[in-house]
Amino acid sequence: MRDLILIFSAFALTWAVALCALDPPSTALKVTSTAFEQGAAIPLKHTCDGQDLSPPLAWAGVPPGAKSLAVVCDDPDAPAGTWDHWVLYNLPADTPGLPEGVAASGTGLPSGTLQGLNGWRTQGYRGPCPPRGGPHRYFFRVYALDTALSLPAGASKEKVQSAMKGHVLAAGELVGRYARR
Length: 181
Prior knowledge:
Oligomer: single chain
Shape: globular
Largest sheet: 6 strands, mixed
Strand content: 25-35%
Distance between the termini: 54 Å
Strand order of the largest sheet: 1-9-8-4-5-7
Radius of gyration: 18 Å
Order of helices and strands: HEEEEEEEEHE
């Protein structure tokens, strides 16, 4: 039994070292919104029950050497699994945030910024729209990357995340909640 524990411990240590080599830990970005605070309710106007406007977002702490930013918003509490609400990538690294109501067409975004597909298979922001019941969590994640992603507009979150592997210099998140009445 002791030998089995030693073998398992050695395997676990080797696996952990391998994971760190593939995707080293990143530093933290501070992500905020004037619409809601960390862990608070997302206002109605940013949901499907309101105007479905993207909330304003701001971030700080983008490290030197960052070439682009990516933003992903998803709901891990969706009944069918994680549901994607917004995917943006190739924002210039010096972009300090996003205004309220970013258009699906990308109008108003910095030049070169692309929007990926959300869970409805359309581009642009689609706000919280959970089934009735308890609140869902919505994670607005911002990533600082050491490269621009070589992806066309309309890439899936999975393709964006795959292209980001090994290029994340820093990341941060803002979590909001929403429940339909």
